[in-house]
Automatic annotation (TrEMBL):
It comes from Argiope bruennichi. Residues 40-128 form the Calponin-homology (CH) domain. PROSITE patterns: ACTININ_1 (PS00019), CH (PS50021). Pfam families: CH (PF00307). The keyword Ribosomal protein does not apply. Keywords: Actin-binding, Repeat. It comes from the Eukaryota. GO terms for molecular function: actin binding. This is Filamin-A like protein.
Length: 128
């Protein structure tokens, strides 16, 4: 069986079937610095999915850490998924207001019993 090529990326699907960096198959991967390739693939996939969800609102993200930092795009994503409006500060002027927006989004997820797992702490450094 020939390994599947992934376009211009320059790697094959051999070893990329692991579900998480903690999985036994992922630990055996010695591709581009162990778990980094897995994280890059997951991040790109998630960004593409988020962009598909918020594109009708005229929004997009390119960097998870910075684009979600004021909470507005995160709230927009939650509003699209939950099909309801959330209270937000439309033009946050300081870190406190940004954190309030992020907290609003996280509380909306918690109210739907959504649990965040395997989220890199670099996304929300203020909470670590």
């Amino acid at each position: 069986m020939e390994p599947e090529e992934f376009g211009d990326v320059g790697f094959t699907n051999v070893g990329l079937k692991a579900r998480s960096p903690e999985g036994h198959a992922a630990r055996a991967m010695h591709i581009k610095g162990d778990e980094y390739i897995w994280v890059e693939i997951q991040e790109k996939t998630f960004k593409n999915w988020v962009n598909e969800q918020i594109r009708p609102l005229g929004m997009s993200i390119t960097n998870l850490a910075t684009d979600f930092s004021d909470g507005l795009r995160l709230i927009a994503l939650i509003e699209v998924l939950q099909k309801r409006k959330l209270k937000k500060i439309r033009k946050p002027l300081n870190q406190h207001q940004c954190l309030e927006n992020v907290q609003t989004a996280l509380q909306a997820m918690a109210s739907d019993n959504i649990k965040l797992v395997n989220i890199g702490e670099y996304l929300f450094p203020c909470f670590s």
